[in-house]
Write a structure and sequence with these properties.
The protein has 126 residues and is mostly helical. Helices cover 75% and strands 0% of the residues.
Length: 126
């Protein structure tokens, strides 16, 4: 069940990042929002290449401890990510108002929460 939740969570965050491009999310990010629009957009999209490369590499690392730790961090981020979007939802430049946008955000958070719960249950088992 945990592998399925991990891959679903990864799918939700990956697809959310596609949606983030259509929603001009760089306008909300501290470093990028001060840049010219075309440059900010190009950086936002381009920086996802190394970000996802590292994410896939570390969450599939051959050392089980590294792999599981990275997956736990990603799943925790998915939970925190929901609260970040909730907090930003009143910002004038925030445009993630569609049911699809929120399904991607909440779906990832739900997968993350279930994954973390199952991980905690495994650790507490005698």
């Amino acid at each position: 069940m945990k592998p399925l939740l991990f891959y679903l969570g990864l799918g939700f965050i990956s697809t959310h990042e596609l949606d983030a491009v259509t929603q001009h999310e760089w306008r909300l990010l501290y470093v990028l929002r001060g840049l010219a629009e075309p440059l900010a957009e190009q950086l936002f999209v381009s920086l996802h290449v190394p970000l996802f490369a590292v994410l896939v590499w570390i969450t599939h690392h051959p050392v089980p401890r590294w792999r599981e730790s990275a997956r736990l961090v990603l799943m925790a981020f998915l939970v925190i990510h929901v609260s970040l979007h909730w907090r930003l939802s009143g910002h004038p430049l925030y445009t993630f108002h569609s049911p699809l946008s929120w399904a991607l955000i909440l779906g990832g958070g739900f997968c993350g929460l279930l994954y973390l719960s199952l991980s905690l249950r495994e650790r507490l088992k005698p």
